[in-house]
Amino acid sequence: AGIGKCVAMDLARRNARTILACRSRERGQAAVEEIRAATGNPAVVLRLLDTGSLASVRAFASAVLREEPRLDVLVNNAGATGLPFAITSEGLEQTFSTNYLGPFLLTNLLLG
Length: 112
Description:
By secondary structure, the chain is mainly alpha-helical. It contains four helices and two strands; from the N terminus they run αβαβαα. Helix 2 (about 25-40) links the parallel strand 1 (about 20) and strand 2. Belongs to the short-chain dehydrogenases/reductases (SDR) family.
């Protein structure tokens, strides 16, 4: 939704292979279908990613590096505000992990 969806729509309009990294399979798949329909670009795909989980970040990065021949652009757009204080299963504060640690790790893993 929001800025991320607009950026994905623009990239798809430019005929780019576009990977939507989403926490929710249902919302992500709905966005993929909407973007494909609006742009005519079939190369819009969904991959699940929760930046609040470093294990999820590692799995996502591993799959992208294994499946994609190249990566030209990374847009780190996800973030959360107003979350109640919580500690992740990895022992990290949830908001900090989601907004900072996850995107930082993802960027570094994809740099290659």
